[in-house]
Fold this sequence. Notes:
- The strands form four sheets. A five-stranded mixed beta sheet has the order 2-7-6-5-4. A five-stranded mixed barrel has the order 8-9-14-11-10. The protein has a two-stranded antiparallel ribbon with strand order 1-3.
- It has nine helices and 16 strands.
- By secondary structure, it is an alpha/beta fold.
- Helix 4 links the parallel strand 6 and strand 7 (116-119).
- Helix 6 (166-175) packs across helix 8 (276-291).
- It is 32% helix and 28% strand.
Amino acid sequence: MQPFTKSVTVSELLQVKRLHLELVCGKRYVHREITSSSVNRPGLALCGQLDYFRANSVQVFGRGEHAFCAKEKAGQLKNNIAKMLGQGHVPCVIMAADLDPLPAVRKACLGADVPVLKTKMESAAFVAEFSRYLDERLSPITHVHGVLLNVSGSGVLLRGEAGIGKSECALELIKRGHILVADDVVEVQRRWGRFLVGSCPEMLKHYIEVRGLGILDVELLFGIGSTLDEMKIEMEVELTPPAKNIDRLGLEQKTSQILGVELPSLTIPVTPGRNLAVLIEVAVLNQQLKSQGIFAAKEFSQKMLCRMNKTAKRNGTKA
């Protein structure tokens, strides 16, 4: 599926309690959409310097900006803000620290059809919280076919063709104490900092489909602790039919990409009698060791090469 980006309107912001926002003026313009997750402090733009100005971002005025505006001539200030707001699509202006916008600021914003809001939060705290909120709402999203679980504290995305046994494997892992996030459809979002978070579409939450058993409610069967709303995705496991060419030592470091973010990837052939749940548990623990710089396959390979070199020297031959 193709990734898509969400948007949020100014009127929706006013409903977010953790931001403590209220409308000051411009009620007619609260339908304006926010599509960028970046937040801007105008700074030099208030002086008329518009190079590198983030014209499509929400503009936040803190105590510093307010103090500058109070000292600037009203006419010049209004002109500078009008130019600033005319550069692109500024969704709204937000006054931090419960500050009231000066008349020149109000006039310039209303003249550009930009609503003005204010919050009682200090500017630094507000920008941090607001950035987190926008990141949650506006980050790129895609949907992938698979099962997402929390296995030993790591987010594992099980993938493979239909009927390969992903849900059966997931059921065994849940029975062994691991946690289900999503079955069949996983909603994947790329968050700021370039990591992936997976969740389950609302209609499918807590449910898993197992061939022969049908739809099961995991939360009712195994308890409320058996499901999670979302999880950071840290590795991908691909279940495949038996193959002849298999990396027996595990030296290959395969990766896959979702939304431009690389994930460690492992391929496990599915054959009768294999305990896939145990294999995935061990794969997760091994990946955790790799992330700490401990790579068993490479260490084993190096030991073997050293042994062969020593043997070759004793025999007077090359390894």
